[in-house]
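note to self — DONT lose this again. spent like an hour looking for the file last time. sequence + predicted structure for the chain T wanted, 259 res
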Amino acid sequence: MLNFCSLYSGSSGNSLFVESENTKVLIDCGVSCKKVEEALALLDVDPTSIDAVLVTHEHSDHVKGLGTFSKKFGVPIYANAETLDGMEAQTSKINPDIIHKFKVRDKFCIGDLEFKSFSISHDAANPCGFNVFKDNKKISIATDIGTMDAKTIKNLEDSIFVLLEANYDPNILKYSPYPYLLKRRIAGPTGHLPNEDAGKTISHLLNSGLQSAMLGHLSKENNFPELAYKTVAEEIISSNHSIDLSVASRTEPGKLIKF
């Protein structure tokens, strides 16, 4: 058994749920502890049954509720050393005995799930995405990507499912009220992934067995779910492929996906 659910995904906060027969984990905890509890309740999951929270990077929209959630329920945290050093406000709340460090690109197991982290291009200390392996199945999580390079694509290949960032539409960003420097950061090589690049990436991954994809981490100000879906779908169609495509909600949990 391998199941996935996006609890929250967007520029305002991110938290994802993955489970097997014997293991339950969160990837990021970027909303309040209360909101995570509410989302898990909808899945009939007791927060005390969560075996770990894996952290992609230290930005607030990925760790906002991390310290409180871990402290309240005694949930272990897994992050690389640089990320841990960058979120002292969260780690100061957590029992150091349940903080686990991993090196990016190393594989490690939590229960009967195997994880492999991989580097991504983003303006954080040492940001990463995750591959999750179970029963010869591979799913992948990759958001906050300024540049979709060959190494990142290679790490996503052979996945049957990917949650991939489709953060912004360049035209909306261009005319948004954001200050120039923020626009430059978002569209820069260590910023975020635009819709079209997400579509091209998914089209490529279809050649290595991708069966379904979910667009995540959409900007509230510089994107729309319908536009992200349309842009990516058009890229997929132009490559003569089809796929089960969906968009993660910023404000509420999605359906539990069973692989």
